[in-house]
Design a protein that fits this description.
The protein has helices at 2-20, 29-45, 47-53, 55-60, 65-80, 89-115; strands at residues 24-26, 84-86. The protein is mainly alpha-helical. The protein has a two-stranded antiparallel sheet with strand order 1-2.
């Protein structure tokens, strides 16, 4: 139950990001659900491999290269999925940053509400 709630909250966060960033478009809630699921898979399977491969660059930039990796993966998801579009790499970086902030805030609020 909690996993489905987090999935729905991530889809809502993705819709919020699309409303704030002009270079990101989501065609509807169903497309946001698919994109949130795909982003979760990408972040679970591909991101750790990329972080390991780029560890020297990440250490050299004091961790700032992780923003590049997150933006690239967000942009990649937008280029693979139908109904979720990211216009450029820099829109992907901004979108990934906002997506993580919105997702964190919604998940924290949901956790607080579930405790009461």
């Amino acid at each position: 139950m909690k996993l489905i709630l987090i999935w729905i909250l991530n889809a809502l966060a993705l819709i919020a990001v699309a409303n704030y960033v002009t270079g990101i478009q989501v065609d509807g809630f169903a497309a946001a659900l698919v994109a949130a699921f795909f982003l979760g898979l990408v972040n679970t399977l591909i991101r750790p491999v990329l972080l390991l491969l780029t560890l020297p660059v990440t250490l050299l930039t004091l961790g700032l290269f992780i923003f590049v990796i997150n933006g690239f993966l967000f942009w990649f998801a937008g280029s693979v999925l139908r109904g979720f579009m990211v216009d450029s790499f820099w829109h992907g970086v901004l979108g990934a940053l906002l997506y993580s902030v919105f997702s964190w805030a919604l998940s924290a609020a949901a956790t607080q509400l579930m405790r009461k």
